Amino acid sequence: MRRSLLTTASLLLAAAPATMASALAAEDGWSGEGQLGVSLTTGNTEDTALLAALKLNYTADRFSHSFRALADYRDSFDVTTNEEYALGYQLNYDVDDQLYGFGSVDWERNEFAGRTNRWTESVGLGVHAIATPTTQLDLEGGIAFRQTDYTLGAGNGETAARLRGYLSHAFNENVSVSQEVIGIIGESNTVDSISAVTAKVTDALALRASYEVTYDSAPLPGLKETDTATRLGVVYGF
Known about the structure:
Layout: H1 2-25, E1 30-41, E2 47-60, E3 63-76, E4 79-94, E5 99-110, E6 115-131, E7 135-150, E8 155-170, E9 175-185, E10 190-200, E11 205-216, E12 226-237
Antiparallel strand pairs: 1-2, 1-12, 2-3, 3-4, 4-5, 5-6, 6-7, 7-8, 8-9, 9-10, 10-11, 11-12
């Protein structure tokens, strides 16, 4: 029964990005992508892995809006081994062709990393250091306000510096790579790095493999400073 419910959920997750994309594609200024990864095994091992991610972008004049959502769930023999959720929104205002100001709000829940809720609000400046048809490099710096609730019941808030770098390069029309690094530097330091390779199958569909490394300088007792996640999925872009 549990396996049937998970399979049904995976099909619904697969349809959602494509349905939303079809609705938004007709609207000027909208772009984005939906990603789905599913793995179900039975027999000697009974493992389930579900990955759903969505990115939406809307541009109007000098303003651009970016929204992202992620759900990553894994279990083995009906024992949950990972459950991570994240939401994010960023507003950019282009001062000129290179310089822009930004404000962002991010939320995440990852109880296996000891966090029931973490909110991060940031403001700062960014620069489009490289902007060519094949290569993009964005650099950002600003101030961040972060509030964290821990699984042990305690919580804290801090003011920190926020640094971000994003690099993407297309080798040709079908294959591209990207690297994003976000660092929050304060009383405790966190660094999140995501490397990805994307290969187009059709104009709208692609395969993507990504590797994420998350570092926390002050984990809860008994937890490690570094977490990694390898993800494989199908991407629907519009």
